[in-house]
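During data preparation, we tokenized the protein backbone, and the record follows.
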Amino acid sequence: VQLVESGGDLAQPGGSLRLSCAASGFTFSSYVMGWFRQAPGKEREFVAAISWSGGNTYYADSVKGRFTISRDNAKNTLYLQMNSLKPEDTAMYYCTKGYFSPSGSFNGASWGQGTQVTVSS
């Protein structure tokens, strides 16, 4: 499994960024995929997840309405469109091939190296 994130950058509050995750080494279209993030001194937290078909999406309350997760199974690529960025969105963002636990939480199983998003004026 290889996951390579890109698209992280410095953005102003209210701005937008689009993250990408290129996947290889597994059948991308068969797996739930997601994004997590980790800010300095904080635990890694769930951001968004998407079903194998793209028909179902799930978001953390903190990003709902501002972020959009999507996928292109033909290109083996996962995306995260981030709009209306806030300083508290500053973090390392990780792409993950994951799964839903019986309790309904999304868990990452394989991780990329991360891409840094910094929101500051």
Observations:
- The longest strand covers residues 91-100.
- Residues 30 and 73 are 9 Å apart (CA to CA).
- The two ends are 37 Å apart (CA to CA).
- DSSP finds no helices and eleven strands in the chain.
